[in-house]
């Protein structure tokens, strides 16, 4: 009991101590601005034009009806209702996601890569999502360096993570740590002192940059505490974001794993604004909560089994299938197992999507990676056979609108191949990536003066009256 009291006092003291981390990071990054136009400068130059574009659109077309709402949509989770503004990405049912108008293959081709690497650096996608522009290699190198310079965690956050029991789910620890960083929020402190609305985006930008920079340290500390020896390597200031995450997790010696992380973090960033993690971050942010509180809320949504846990469900199902079929990966064997799954009233995990009606391009990018790096892996061969057989079975079954795989049908097998087998941690990796997609929109929201989100709700009796029903 005495040691707990001493530890608590130290924790409170470290929280109360004035933080110099932000100023040190900003001082360290000033040198980068002389090399190329910074991300902050690039975004700031775009704000007036974006505000005028929105004003003109609302003035000239504000009364235009853009859709209709059915009662099924109201009671079906608002599925398909057109009501959100999300600049970074748009999801097409046939061709999949486009990031600022660019497909995943186009992003893989156009975005800067690490020296000798094949996959795009997620720093480049973050720049694209925020500004709509493809950055230069130098701009991406500068952004990598800036995030590395901002990456140190406050001591009290390190202690907070270390004090979590290893039985507490990694996603819960992740959310706790991100919430605790509110203590460092430039936005919250500036708002408390009083600031102009035109300044909101700058403090939101600074918080978002700090938060993204610190996520690898948070995620790795959780991973090393729960599953390994608790020791986390220091951030290497001359390395990119994905390399540092890989190194701190303990996998950087395998260059292929580092390349996988670059691909993984890029393709999991953003998927329109209507999914739970994206919408929740936007919704909480619309109340002018800081990026730390907003992302923590989004992470809590991501932790749900109907959202971020899907890749674990796929891997569990594939493992069960492998145990039953063994080395018999014949068409007939896989077909029989699929039908067995469906006849038990279960779904085929990783197949189907709320919007997509073709194979998810994110799945395709991971499949192409596996074909290059692990073509003989038994689990990849199983995944390939399921990909070959499942669409036909699901079409014949007739209850799946999209019989093709989504991103979750592949990612777990890749992570497991490289030795990251702790499935409870997979959603934390997803959370690191999703931050890169939702925080640009939060910055944009504050820059253009987006209002608090407040849709209208009705009781069931009121809805019945609206549609002329008698209950």
UniProtKB/TrEMBL annotation:
Keywords (A to Z) from UniProt: Transferase, Transit peptide
RNA-binding listed as a keyword: no
Write out the GO cellular component annotations: mitochondrial matrix
Q: List, alphabetically, the Pfam families matched.
A: Citrate_synt (PF00285)
Enzymatic reactions:
oxaloacetate + acetyl-CoA + H2O = citrate + CoA + H(+); propanoyl-CoA + oxaloacetate + H2O = (2S,3S)-2-methylcitrate + CoA + H(+)
BP GO annotations: carbohydrate metabolic process; citrate metabolic process; tricarboxylic acid cycle
Its domain of life reads Eukaryota
**Entry keyword annotation includes Transferase:** yes
Q: Name one GO molecular function term.
A: citrate synthase activity
The record's annotation in InterPro entries points to:
Citrate_synth-like_lrg_a-sub, Citrate_synth-like_sm_a-sub, Citrate_synthase, Citrate_synthase_AS, Citrate_synthase_euk, Citrate_synthase_sf
List the active site: 307, 353, 408
List, alphabetically, the NCBIfam families matched: cit_synth_euk (TIGR01793), PRK09569.1 (NF007128)
The record's comment on protein family reads: Belongs to the citrate synthase family.
Name of the protein in question: Citrate synthase
Q: What is the lineage of its organism?
A: Eukaryota, Fungi, Dikarya, Ascomycota, Pezizomycotina
């Amino acid at each position: 009991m005495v040691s707990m009291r001493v530890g608590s006092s130290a924790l409170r003291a470290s929280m109360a101590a004035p933080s110099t981390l932000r100023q040190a990071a900003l001082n360290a990054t000033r040198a980068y601005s002389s090399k190329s136009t910074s991300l902050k400068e690039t975004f700031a130059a775009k704000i007036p034009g974006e505000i005028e574009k929105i004003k003109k659109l609302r003035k000239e077309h504000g009364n235009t009806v853009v859709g209709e709402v059915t009662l099924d949509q109201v009671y079906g989770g608002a599925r398909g209702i057109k009501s959100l503004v999300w600049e970074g990405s748009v999801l097409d049912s046939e061709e999949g996601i486009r990031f600022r108008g660019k497909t995943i293959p186009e992003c893989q081709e156009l975005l800067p890569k690490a020296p000798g690497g094949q996959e795009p650096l997620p720093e480049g996608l973050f720049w694209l999502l925020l500004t709509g522009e493809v950055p230069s290699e130098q701009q991406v190198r500068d952004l990598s360096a800036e995030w590395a310079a901002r990456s140190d965690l406050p001591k009290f956050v390190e202690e907070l993570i270390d004090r979590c029991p290893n039985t507490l789910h990694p996603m819960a620890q992740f959310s706790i740590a991100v919430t605790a960083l509110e203590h460092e929020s430039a936005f919250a402190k500036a708002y408390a002192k009083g600031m102009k609305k035109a300044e909101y985006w700058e403090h939101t930008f600074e918080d978002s940059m700090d938060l993204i920079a610190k996520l690898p340290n948070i995620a790795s500390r959780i991973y090393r505490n729960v599953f390994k020896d608790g020791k986390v390597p220091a951030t290497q200031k001359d390395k990119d974001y994905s390399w540092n995450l890989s190194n701190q997790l303990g996998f950087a010696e395998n260059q292929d794993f580092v390349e996988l992380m670059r691909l993984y973090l890029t393709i999991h960033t953003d998927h329109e604004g209507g999914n739970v993690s994206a919408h929740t971050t936007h919704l909480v942010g619309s109340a002018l909560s800081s990026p730390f509180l907003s992302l923590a809320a989004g992470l809590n949504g991501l932790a749900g089994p109907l959202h971020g846990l899907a890749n674990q469900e796929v891997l569990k199902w594939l493992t069960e299938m492998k145990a039953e079929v063994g080395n018999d990966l014949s068409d007939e064997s896989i077909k029989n197992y699929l039908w067995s799954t469906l006849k038990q009233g279960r779904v085929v995990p990783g197949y189907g999507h709320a919007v997509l009606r073709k194979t998810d391009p994110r799945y395709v990018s991971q499949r192409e990676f596996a074909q290059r790096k692990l073509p003989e892996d038994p689990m990849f061969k199983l995944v390939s056979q399921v990909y070959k057989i499942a669409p036909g079975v699901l079409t014949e079954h007739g209850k799946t609108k999209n019989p093709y795989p989504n991103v979750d049908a592949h990612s777990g097998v890749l992570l497991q191949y490289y030795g990251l087998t702790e499935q409870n941690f997979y959603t934390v990796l997803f959370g690191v990536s999703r931050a890169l997609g939702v925080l640009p929109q939060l910055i944009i929201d504050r820059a253009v003066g987006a209002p608090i989100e407040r849709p209208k709700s009705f009781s069931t009796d009121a809805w019945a009256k609206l549609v002329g029903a008698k209950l």
